[in-house]
Amino acid sequence: MGLTTTSRRPARTAPDRPRTGPGPTLPPRCRDEECAAVNDPAGQPEPADPTHPAEHVFAWLDDEAERRSQAGLVRRLRPRSATAEEIDLAGNDYLGLARDKRVTSAAAAAALRWGAGATGSRLVTGSTELHAELEHELARFCGAEAALVFSSGFTANLGAITTLSGRESAIVTDNYIHASLIEGCRLSRADVAAVAHSDPDAVAHALRTRRQSRALVVTDSVFSVDGDKAPLPELSAVCREHGAGMIVDDAHGIGVLGEGGRGAAHEAGLTAEPDVVTTITLSKALGAQGGAVLGPRRVIRHLVDTARSFIFDTGLAPSSAGAALAALGILRDEPQRATRVLDVAAELVTRLRAAGLSTSDPDAAVVSVHAPSPEQAVAWATRCAEKGVRVGCFRPPSVPDGVSRLRLTARADLTSADVDACVDAITMTAPQDAAS
Ligand SMILES: Cc1ncc(COP(=O)(O)O)c(C=O)c1O
Questions:
Q1: Which pTM does this prediction carry?
Q2: How far is the CA of 428 from the centre of ligand 1 (A)?
Q3: Can you say whether the dihedral through the CA atoms of 293, 295, 297, 298 is positive or negative?
Q4: E strands, 107-184, in order
Q5: pLDDT tens column, 49-59
Q6: Whose CA is nearest to atom 8 of ligand 1?
Q7: Which residue ranges have their beta carbon within 6 Å of ligand 1?
Q8: Which domain-ending residue is among 333, 348, 364?
Q9: Which residues make beta-bridge pairs with 89?
Q10: Where is this region: Disordered (predicted)?
Q11: What's the pLDDT tens digit per position in 52-109?
């Protein structure tokens, strides 16, 4: 029997609205205004069909949007052009590898050889020899027993936390951990205690007073808002003393910290330890896309068998695996990139402070500059963009302490003239009350 479809709903016609779905009539590339109309909630106040009987179902979202707007928390998608001339201090391409010809060529070659997508879950058809090679090289580079590549750092964190804990476990986290780690903790159904930022004594107290025998400490290695480093050696000692495992999210450490950019966990001597698991992203310093978990072989085996964000997710695209492999090779051959990015971060801090701005005290590539309010942070970032420097803007609820900031990321490929231009743009456009 053939498949038939019936619909009692009247056909919806909106001839004067742009099409938002994919289809042959869409232009191959979206012009800025069209993209804004499709993606920018503030750009489409009109409901598609106010007389539709189900129109009220999601109408409460408009009240929520209004509340966010009142609080200065509307977020906008700003599609960037492929030929933008601006200096990028907003992305996480710390080593300048995302557009390195060797990396992009490797991505293209991998797509041509293996296909545009992985075609399935890693456990079905989504594991290629390229994935296996990347896992081998990542483990070797970071000094871990084994590695497992995920489709993103986010899913790597979900997989690691949920499978290494559970209802019968306690998890102790730093208050400032990344959202992906928080989601992993929620999904784990463990008893979660979030303690004061960078405070091993508070972690020790939570571990000492737990009811559960199994415990896990979860932390970023470098915190993504201010770029400060977690006290990994101290945390590791506390975990040892209390029989807890540790997950270190080295998303902002890999490629930047440690010998030749091997990361903060390697720098702290933790990547080969039997009770430590490191997660990384391939999407920042390595300029590609994807994530990985590094750790003891028994942990990796457990993830393959049980991590739902691995099993029920399409494998990492071959182009991303190829790009990450090429980036890793470059990092191995050009370790000075890791040193350069730290020098650029230090120079930005020194010069912004000299101009009277209040900055974080970063240990890695992320530098934040305090803004007086969410609205002023947005306006400041916009003025920087007008001067040709793209900066990030962090506002509540993305910041744990409620302080809005410009977020700058140092990059190894910035020249001295670029740094001058960045400092000029940021200082010349600063709000009056931004000075410390
Ligand atoms: C600390 C941290 N962990 C994990 C992630 C998620 O990585 P990905 O972007 O590869 O999903 C990010 C990304 O912003 C991050 O900053």
A1: 0.89
A2: 31
A3: negative
A4: 146-150, 169-174
A5: 889 999 999 99
A6: 153
A7: 152-154, 157, 178, 180, 220, 224, 249, 251-252, 281, 283, 291
A8: 333
A9: 391
A10: 1-53
A11: 999 999 999 999 999 998 887 788 888 888 888 899 999 999 999 999 999 999 999 9
